[in-house]
């Protein structure tokens, strides 16, 4: 009626919708955002507690005695802690040999697989030759072949070479790198501007020098991610060491842990098994703690730009 009569709407009527929208936005900012933030943190804390509970249970159990396992109810945390489990573990099995063997396999795995995979990925990402894409497709296709399918031919080959019950079957094949690592690094290398290669070539740098002085330094997050993956995979590897190794002193830690649980006593010594498991997990926790910044950054960059 106001418009039909030719009268302009009052300023109070015009400002009411704007004031109500501002009030709604302010209410959302004051109430919904803090509530949503609290919900997100609660979900993160709950998820962390669920995933961290087995580790906390293992730590707690490693400081218990065998009698405390069968108490009803069991103690929440033994006081005082039973440190004798760790001393008994060192005296019972050849853990020093297991740690040494796993360290050799893991260090060689991290160095060889990371370096070889990075070099091969550089060739696929930064060089041009006729059958490059076909070779890359061939490398990626090996990821579809299960490891268990090739175990019998590899055992026959290593038996004829006299490598069984040694660390050679676990270390020599690392020279070929990893198809998965090659794929990750190739995808990251392709995100680096090619103009850097052209500028280096104008200055007289060879492709090899370009790889070591330009591409690799700019790819530290991705290379660190591959190194962490390689460390975890080689330290925890069980299947192939279990097939190739028979002598207890030549076993890796993963196989030795299974040997430790297989029946060295008449009754299960759960506190000793938990102590050995904690010793096996400790290097992974330490490595991830110091490398988590590069690891998370590498995962983020390869996930977004790959």
Q: Could you name the key traits of this structure?
A:
306 residues, mainly alpha, MetI-like fold, 14 helices, 0% strand, flat
Strand runs, count: 0
Number of helices: 14
Distance between the termini: 62 Å
Q: Element order, helices and strands?
A: HHHHHHHHHHHHHH
Largest β-sheet summary: none
- Report the CATH superfamily of the largest domain: MetI-like
Radius of gyration: 29 Å
CATH topology of the largest domain: MetI-like fold
How does CATH name the architecture of the largest domain? Answer: Orthogonal Bundle
Percent range of helical residues: over 70%
Task: Tell me what the structure shows.
There is one protein chain. Helices cover 72% and strands 0% of the residues. With 306 residues, it is mostly helical. It has two domains: 12-56; 84-305, MetI-like fold (Orthogonal Bundle), CATH 1.10.3720.10. It is flat. Residues 1-6 have low confidence and may be disordered.
Secondary structure layout:
Layout lengths: L10 H52 L3 H4 L14 H9 L2 H32 L5 H10 L9 H11 L6 H4 L7 H11 L5 H8 L4 H12 L1 H17 L2 H6 L8 H9 L8 H36 L1
Brief synopsis:
By secondary structure, this protein is mostly helical. The protein is 72% helix and 0% strand.
